[in-house]
Structure prediction request, 627 residues.
Amino acid sequence: MNLENQFNTRKPPVATTGLIGWLRINLFSSWFNTAVTLLVLYFLYQIIPWFLDWSILSADFTHNYKGEKIIDRTFCSRVANPEEYHGACWSIIIVRFYQFIYGFYPVDQVWRANLTYFLLAVALIPLLVENLPYRRHLIKFTIVFPIIAFVLLYGGFGFEIVPTNKWGGLLVTLVLGVFGIALAFPLGIILALGRRSKLPVISMVCTLFIEFIRGVPLITLLFFGMVMLPLFLPEGINMDGLVRVLVAVTLFQAAYMAEVIRGGLQAIPQGQFEAAQSVGLSYWQMNRKIILPQAIRITIPSIVNTSIGLFKDTTLVIIIGLLDLLGIGRGALSDATWMGLSNEVYVFVAIVFFIFTFSMSRYSLYLEKKLKTGINMGAD
Amino acid sequence: MSEDSIISLSNVNKWFGDFQVLQDVNLEVKRKERIVVCGPSGSGKSTMIRCINRLEEHQEGTIIVDGIELTGNLKNIDSVRREVGMVFQQFNLFPHLSVKENITLAPIWVKRMPKAEAEELAMQQLEIVKIPEQANKYPGQLSGGQQQRVAIARSLAMKPNIMLFDEPTSALDPEMIKEVLDVMVELAEAGMTMIVVTHEMGFAKTVANRMVFMDEGRIVEEAAPEKFFNNPESDRTKLFLSQILNH
Ligand SMILES: Nc1ncnc2c1ncn2[C@@H]1O[C@H](COP(=O)(O)OP(=O)(O)OP(=O)(O)O)[C@@H](O)[C@H]1O
Ligand SMILES: [Mg+2]
Prediction:
């Protein structure tokens, strides 16, 4: 054996690393995998060019094939000349873009909605970027953001009131999704702790609440919020429609969140509780500093999963007459000037939802990765 | 109870369901006294010392710690837990916090100590257990012996008057047992009141003022170490000692 060989480690065999190695391992490792890979490739080959052609290359945006500005469906190339043209007609989205994003929010006040969108992005930054100067203060902003957002959107404090029945489109979808998730999270934690409480009354109330809500479809709760909730309120107090829906959505989400978090709490070893108690931490300190951080860490994937579920379920509000993103889309379709363009509308709505839910699922992967090291460190 | 007792258990009874774990347990511990508790598995050793800081609740009898009686009163429980530190067989460090944070947590939140002061205190405690260089690691990055010493430091940071140890070396590899026992011996020499459940008889002989032998939920024998090891009264103690010393 020559001396050099002893010190130079050999390179791995060519075909196990790099692109070829990756392809081999992941796509062509057996005849079955190879068949599936080829089938999928064929499928993509059929779909992608067709979709690109339909959605972009042959599509109308503001003007049709004759160069005319599209003002109703009859101007769309594929309606005007169906023999030769088959592309999408995005004008319905473009003409109604304002409605899709803001609903019927007054144009002279729309800066408030825009500012809210902007502040939402700011509020998300500290959750996304870890090594941020002043992150702790930005987090405080994130926590109070829902209040700021509500005041900005609704009005009061010198702003003109914009009643919530004027809100619509993405604005309503995000208000329900973001508020629903943000409010349900602390409520879910309280319910999960309550269900595990040693005090029988508290534990029973929380269990009953959770099981009742989980046993009922969201639609039922939405009707409950619309129709029954006002009956429970004292005379003279008129709760806003959107707020009533938000209450229903929040309670629904909180029940699911509670069960997810309870699962995490059960996974924490008894010794953690005992150690926390023996150094003198109170019940709340113990949960806040020791138990919940660990329980939430291990349940992040499930928390995000139920959150994505809720975000999509908010489209059910259409049934009680709220116009969220999907509702605005259906409204556009029922308008005689744009009838028949349902593909465009549903594809657009689907893409918007996909962007949000996909981001959420990526975020959960990022958190998992970030926290994985921490969990491994915890292994004895 | 006698005047200078810091811990006093009288006629303590406890049941888990129908099963009686503690039967008429009486124990007086004086200030600065070191008690070693031994006995077969399931004899109630852990349960007894866990009653002293109320991790378990006794149903009959009285337990008084430094003049405070343990009842359902939450305030009393809090004050007793400030007096009493506890070290567990499984260390029970907080895995999501660094070593330093494990130690500063209780001083900051329970005693409202400023962070800088708490960190200084943590470093002092880590000096005592001889691992100041591990301050910024996470528990999972330490060996068992180091983890157990961090656990001791974490308890000491609350400046307890009493330390309870529940088989602190049973989960450790043999080569790490000594480093933990050494720390405990120093603690004893510094005058800490200690109750130690352990089967490390070498440690017991050097450190204990008094041996307590438990079986089936009762304290069967209580004696000074020389008498306990050389001339025990009860047959059960003899049997236990022969088993434990011969293997
Ligand atoms: N939470 C509990 N519920 C029911 N039974 C329990 C509980 N904890 C302990 N026991 C029982 O009480 C008895 C005494 O337990 P304990 O842990 O005090 O024994 P020990 O002397 O510390 O034993 P070991 O040496 O194995 O630690 C055992 O029979 C055990 O099974
Ligand atoms: Mg035990």
User: Anything to note?
Assistant: Confidence is low (pLDDT under 50) at residues 375-380 of chain A. Residues B 45-46, 166-167 surround magnesium ion (ligand 2) (CB under 6 Å). Residues 104 and 166 of chain A are 5 Å apart (CA to CA). The interface with chain B takes residues 269, 271-272, 274-282, 285, 289-290, 293-294, 297, 374-380 of chain A (CB under 8 Å).
